[in-house]
Specification:
Elements: E1 9-11, H1 24-35, E2 39-42, H2 55-70, E3 76-79, E4 82-83, E5 93-94, H3 100-117, E6 121-124, H4 132-146, E7 152-156, H5 157-166, H6 171-175, E8 183-188, E9 192-195, E10 203-206, H7 215-224, E11 233-236, H8 246-266, H9 291-306, H10 310-318, H11 334-347
Amino acid sequence: MEEARVEAIEWSFDALYAVEEVPAWFGELLSVFSNENRLIGHGVFFSLFSGRWLPEQQQWLNDLKAVSRRYQFDHVTEHFGFMTGRDFHHGAPLNIPYTPVTLEIGRDRLKRMQDACSCPVGLENLAFSYSLEEVKKHGDFLNELLEPVNGFMILDLHNLYCQAHNFNLTFEALNSLYPLHRVREIHISGGSWEVSGATPGKTVRRDTHDDAVPEEVFAYLDKAIDFCPSLKYVVLEQLGSGLDCDSSRAAFGHDFLRMDELIKYKNKTAAPLNNFLPEALQIPAQAREDESLYQQQLELSQILETATSFDALMKALQASSLAHSAWQIESWDPAMIETAAKIAQKWRRKDPIF
């Protein structure tokens, strides 16, 4: 910041909805970047694919509309998935089955987002999947989802790194699965490793945003920029909890400078091919819902958040309404089921039981 190397900032605006007062310097910082059209918004808590239209989602849109009047966002994005848990702000964002029902729900929510913020809207690719088949379908589903709003994609390269490790895929194989013509933003970050108890000998890569950017992710960035003709932003992410000592702060600074130099080397002067603004949207008065999907989401959340062992988790899943359904739990990787439970229990603000 002091050296004026930061050319834009991404703000997780909904993380502050419950904060009554923020420091004056923070508002001034947002205003400076907003006035230069270099402020972008990144949501966390909308729960795009909740089967029931929830009061908290309407309030989220109301708040987005208000904050979009105060600050000018160049675009707004959200995470893919639904939030586990009955407490809307204490859940984990997890995957959904790729069906016509979830497609229509997601499209409905994206239209409402775009209407609230009046700027381009997009979604981030997943770091977590239950199975290899889900990984293979994710890019096509994203493309179908975004098409009606002319939406764009955040290509999170650490998320790709997680998928590559967890499902034994190459960058090139993953790269071919995504609609790269829709990429307007790239994320890079670090994460952590977790030894699986369900699959002895396997480690799972987690997108925890609490460590330096791996060398492989910088290699991904070097390659990915060339495949994304509408790319406008590259963002380095890290949680404040991961910057708690001099060495971690120094590593973050080093990662930023390395990213900056790579972008300058790769930078092109041609205008992006797509402005990602939609035609006039028709938004139904009634939000799209599916009560069966919502009940399954509640059931899955309850199972993940309360399981006391991996065996108990598997028995509960097999006895649930998700068995032999569009969720295809029979093909889920045991290590990823275990990881989903740990994520859900962590977001519920308690230590994982197993």
